[in-house]
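Entry for the shared binder. Reason: the reviewer on the internal report wants the predicted structure included alongside the sequence.
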Amino acid sequence: MSQVLEVIRLLGLPKAVRVKRRYDRALGYVRGYATCCCLWSLLETGVLDRLLEADEVVFDALVKDARLDRHVLESIFTYLDGTSLVRMEAGRVRALPELRRLMAEPRGFFELMYAYEPIFHRLRDMLRGKVRYPDDVARLGKYVGRGSGQLCRTLPYPILADMLRRHGATKVLDLGCGDLAFLFYACEALPEVRCVGIDIDPPTVAYAHEVLADSPYADRITVTEADMFDLANVAEQHPDVDAVTAVDTYHEYLADGEAKVVSLLARLREGFPNALLYVGEFCKQPHEKLRRHPTAFLEHHLYHDLTNQVITDAAGWRRIFAEAGLEILEEKVFDVVGHGYFVVR
């Protein structure tokens, strides 16, 4: 108490209170960044999942098993202990309830933000025009898929699975299948459905094969390396596809205008004439709305703007479907989360 009184004597009560309040407000921003960096390092090294999988973990075992720097790991844990995310005592570490809550449904926030960490790391150079995306700096593709998959399990996947069920889908072709998060969800929700996942990225396809082998759906899902703009072979091999799904996929091709996506959709209609197209896509939120209610889509729009990804609004998607000669059979647009869902043919 004597120290507080000394500060008040030196600064005066109004200034002391003002300084305290301003530092407290600034701390939230600084602590958020420091916490993210610490959690990302634990995520990338596998330490985070080891903490979440066990009641507690021996600190020395973490250092040895993951070949980590003891001092750095101890510094990270000491910090996270101070913020009540972990507890480190007597050479053991355990995840506290708040960390477990954050790594439940909101985990996708952290993983998706980590996917763009290289962009933010080079942001000063991007601002000065010294580097450009994607020639000089790129996203972490693995975490784009993982983060998106985690987030999509809360609403997009349930909505699309419900649409597939109600429209009687039996065989699903998923474009840009990534780590198979959506197809796993579809198989879980629809016991009779069979699936084909395609992706153009060889490492992603290899990873998909790995996770598929360890899943209970290996006999219901086929994974193929293919370009969604050239699916003649896939159409020939799987003529019984009656549902073509794409979750947050088409917007990545809008940077040069809508014509490329319009052409893709028209070709999908021709290649799979008996299939309905199921589309889950971001619907751009007006900035005025985000200014009043700064939801997580404020960060989402920033990610996309910095990486030259274009997001259109619901009216834009309706226009694209019409130009591709497609009819909207069902539409659900959730402005509150900036996402739209369409069944078209």
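Summary line for the report: The domain at 155-344 is CATH 3.40.50.150 (Rossmann fold).
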